[in-house]
Amino acid sequence: MKAPLGLLLAVAVLTGCAAKTDQIAQPSPSAEKSGQIAPTGGVTNKATNEATISVPPKAPKTTKVEPPVDDFQQVKAEGKVRVTGTCTELVTDQLTWTLIGPAAANLRDGQRARVVGVPDPNRETGCPGSPLLVSLASPQ
């Protein structure tokens, strides 16, 4: 019983697909001869009989694009050091910094510290805090 039902379903689907291909709009004969814009909104290529996209004759003028500037000022922060796995963080009153660089290697979990560094927001660290490239770290 399942095989005839599956066969019937397959025939119905194929019949529906065949009916849809008959409804595709054909370009007008005048557009085929001249290569001009067809009534369907595209341009017809005479060699392949396929519609292509055309670009407007006057493209809009673009303004000069300025590159993004990541010129951050140095930050001085003071807080408690938290080390979890490979992440060394400085927890301050405002936010948590993920400390990056050799200057941060001397800090230990639970210490209070004062650091100077430059924010590096584009750095992927896998740590929860905001990346800070440390230039000076002094435990207190």
Description:
The chain has helices spanning 2-21, 29-34, and strands spanning 43-45, 50-52, 75-84, 87-91, 96-100, 112-119, 130-139. It has 140 residues and is α+β, with helices and mostly antiparallel strands. The strands form 2 sheets. Strands 3-4-5-7-6 form a 5-stranded mixed barrel. It has a two-stranded antiparallel sheet with strand order 1-2. It is elongated, with a radius of gyration of 33 Å. Mean pLDDT is 75; it is low at 37-41.
Keywords:
alpha+beta; single chain; two-stranded antiparallel ribbon; 140 residues; 5-stranded mixed β-barrel
Q: Which bin fits the share of residues in helices?
A: 10-25%
| pLDDT < 50 stretches | 37-41
Tell me the total number of β-strands: 7
Strand order of the largest sheet: 3-4-5-7-6
Shape type: elongated
Strand content range = 25-35%
Quick check: average pLDDT?
75
How many strands, which pairing sense, and closed or not: the largest β-sheet? 5 strands, mixed, barrel
* Oligomeric organization of the protein chains: single chain
What is the ordering of alpha helices and beta strands?
A: HHEEEEEEE
Brief account:
This protein is α+β, with helices and mostly antiparallel strands and 140 residues long.
Give the helices and strands, then pairings:
Blueprint: H1 2-21, H2 29-34, E1 43-45, E2 50-52, E3 75-84, E4 87-91, E5 96-100, E6 112-119, E7 130-139
Parallel strand pairs: 5-7
Antiparallel strand pairs: 1-2, 3-4, 3-6, 4-5, 6-7
